[in-house]
Amino acid sequence: MGAPQLRLIEAAVQCRVRRFAPAEFEGQPGLRGHGGTLDRERDAAIATLQQYQGRIHYTAFVCGIFYERFAVNGMASLGIGASTGHGYEGDFMANPRYMTSIAPVYDAAQNMSFLCLTSLYDVARFVVRSLDKTWTQEMSMCGERMTVYELLETIRACRSV
């Protein structure tokens, strides 16, 4: 992400690449705040792709949270996610090893918070299958939708075995 991705977009346009998928793989870009501390120049990438909209097609693959974030040693054990600051075990929402969490169980209106979880492997299959489809600006997938509370209970059940 950041400046390297912007340079990659520029190179893709110059080489007449037909499609580009920015490093988004999170929540819906249209629902995110702009310019926040976690942005890592994602807004700039989308703006650059919009600038070249007639020359290159793009989509943001929206998949929610990777199940692998909660794996032993986190996503870093798979060689990914270290640059996000949330790639290691316990870096994101819950630490199954120590049974701790900082998670938004309720939203601002005191309703249960929901999240979408998807496996990296399912995301890869979805992306490959999308290659022969027409791309929209956002393509969504979800392996499982559950409340944050249900996620924490699932972690508790798995760790107490």
Radius of gyration: 17 Å
Uncertain segments are none
Major sheet summary line: 3 strands, mixed
Count of β-strands: 9
Order of helices and strands: HEHEEEEEEHEEH
Beta-strand proportion: 15-25%
Helical stretch tally: 4
Helix content: 25-40%
Structural class label: alpha/beta
Bulk shape: elongated
Tell me the span between the first and last alpha carbons: 39 Å
Adjacency order of strands in the biggest sheet? 4-7-9
Q: What does the average pLDDT come to?
A: 87
Feature tags:
4 helices; single chain; alpha/beta; 161 residues
Tell me about this structure.
The radius of gyration is 17 Å and the shape is elongated. The protein has helices at 3-14, 42-51, 120-130, 148-159, and strands spanning 19-20, 57-58, 60-62, 65-66, 94-95, 100-101, 114-118, 138-140, 144-147. With 161 residues, the chain is α/β, with parallel strands linked by helices. The chain is 28% helix and 16% strand. The chain has four helices and nine strands. The longest helix is centred in the N-terminal third of the chain and has 12 residues, at 3-14. A three-stranded mixed sheet has the order 4-7-9. It starts with a helix and ends with a helix. The model has no long low-confidence stretch (mean pLDDT 87). Strand 1 (19-20), helix 2 (42-51) and strand 2 form a beta-alpha-beta unit.
